[in-house]
């Protein structure tokens, strides 16, 4: 499914970035974690069932199911990504949801403004592109260091495009 608010330009981009969330636990680590926690939950669950405290044994199974569900939701949310491109005639932001749905936003680079909200201690809180009565946030899932580097690079690319004639 695709939503778009403007037509796309086929000009060579000056800046292109693909943003995606950082995953600290890879697929292999996830499997190891599940195997170890599953083994512990199974052993203790069987111990409590064998000693007659069967409700506690079933709670170990429930704990494992909740752990698996939490990681499944986390990995699903990790599939979100954004593609940001800047050319002389277009600023394009493509947002891909975990479900596969894509929303595309286009801005005229001469009208586009890049707004960065900062906190003294935390750093960048949010980044927005707005212009011509439209607004979209970008990089909301990035960590603070990645937000800083993206904001610096994107601001530079937007300034470069606006200065060229």
Q: At CATH's second level, what is the architecture of the largest domain?
A: Roll
Percent of residues in beta strands: 25-35%
The CATH topology of the largest domain is what?
A: PH-domain like
Average pLDDT score: 89
How many DSSP H or I helices? 3
Shape: elongated
The count of strands amounts to: 8
Q: Which class of the largest domain in CATH terms?
A: Mainly Beta
**Radius of gyration from the alpha-carbon trace, in angstroms:** 23 Å
Q: Describe the strand arrangement of the main beta sheet, using strand numbers.
A: 1-5-4-3-2
**Level of helix content?**
40-55%
Q: Which structural class matches the secondary elements?
A: alpha+beta
Summed up, the domain count is 2
Distance between the termini: 36 Å
Q: Characterize the largest beta sheet: strand count, sense, and whether it forms a barrel.
A: 5 strands, mixed
Parts with pLDDT < 50 across at least 5 consecutive residues = none
Order of helices and strands: EEHHEEEEEEH
InterPro entries: DUF2244_TM, UCP032162_TM
Keywords: Membrane, Transmembrane, Transmembrane helix
Pfam families: DUF2244
Protein name: DUF2244 domain-containing protein
């Amino acid at each position: 499914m695709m939503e778009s608010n403007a037509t796309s330009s086929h000009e060579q981009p000056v800046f292109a970035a693909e943003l995606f969330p950082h995953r600290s636990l890879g697929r292999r680590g996830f499997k190891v974690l599940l195997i170890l926690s599953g083994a512990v939950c199974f052993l203790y669950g069987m111990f409590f069932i064998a000693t007659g405290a069967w409700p506690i044994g079933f709670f170990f199974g429930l704990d494992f199911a909740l752990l698996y569900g939490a990681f499944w939701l986390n990995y699903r949310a990790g599939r979100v990504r954004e593609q940001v491109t800047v050319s002389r005639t277009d600023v394009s932001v493509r947002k891909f949801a975990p479900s596969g749905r894509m929303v595309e936003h286009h801005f005229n680079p001469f009208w586009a403004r890049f707004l960065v909200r900062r906190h003294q201690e935390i750093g960048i809180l949010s980044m927005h592109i707005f212009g011509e009565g439209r607004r979209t946030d970008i990089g909301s899932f990035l960590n603070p260091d990645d937000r800083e580097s993206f904001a610096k690079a994107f601001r530079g690319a937007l300034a470069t495009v606006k200065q060229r004639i």
